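Notebook B, p. 112. Complex prediction, attempt 2.
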Amino acid sequence: LTTPVPLCYDELVKYFLSVFALLFLALLPVAKVHASSLQAYQDYLYQYDIYRQKYTEFQVAKNSYDKFKTLESQTQALSATKFMLSQRDLLLRTYMLYLFERTADQNGLTPENKQLYQSLLSTELAFLETQSNLVSSINSIDDALKISQQLESHYKILLATIREITIGISLGQLNAITDNFDHQVIVAQTLVTQNSSFFNSDKKSTINSWFTQIQNKRTLFSQKIDDITQLTAKLATISDSSNLDQKSTDIFRQIGEAKQYMADSIANLGEISVAMQYAD
Amino acid sequence: MAFRTARNNPTQTVTLPTPTAEPFITASPSRSLSPVAMQPEFAEFQAAIATLSAAIAAYTANDPTLTPPVLILPLGFSR
């Protein structure tokens, strides 16, 4: 027989605090998700700072080796190169993990797109993990050059993936606003129909013209989003990095135009609200 | 004969006349509210539009927090 061990006051306090903390986290899943995304972003910024520092140290050591070609400078250059390459991989992995969290947080993404982006990120993370393991086995400057070249030749694919996902997240944010907007248009139509007896013919005509404006803008918005989706799908086929940057900039400009259509539509919905609010 | 000094003749601050601030009230027509405005559904709808307006104003197409790191990939050793 085991006799129950009485809990001391401190242990009881710890127990209740931990239960309370678990309940709190369980009741706030949304806040927890956003907090993980924020934490991932802070990790990324932290690793970026360390990378800058390691890259500066690498440059100093490399320049010294290029200048003097001594055994000592070679050893120092090799060591600095290994640290920098290792940190470069870690920085990219931290950034990809941040994108992973942002994708998970984004409610405006379709489940298919979310799955696609997370699959692409997992592939890239696996590549970077392999790279990181290779870096630890570098024994010479030639080894370092070979391993660095592997990332250099893969980087275009990596960058195209990053562009596709960042555009996708941006569109997801806009999509979440659009879903809410579409719902509010239906609410407005219901309110107008239910209260049509309060509106004179002029008022009805004004409200209908705003609904027509909204419909037109919404059509233009959808067309713009379709164009953006088609352009984004072609990003993976671009091999030239400057061309990729240019296309990405163009896509973001078009997202800005789509945003303007949505902003106009929301303003028009506001006009309907004002028209309904006043009797004259 | 006594000299007049600055101490003996302190400068006097002349206060310039300033127009009295009077609120200029313009006549604004009062608009009567429709019966729809009294409904709770309408109040919810108005609040939803305010939320939407704020969301679209805050939205940035090219989110700067998503910008990838800038890397110089080639090691650049002189061989």
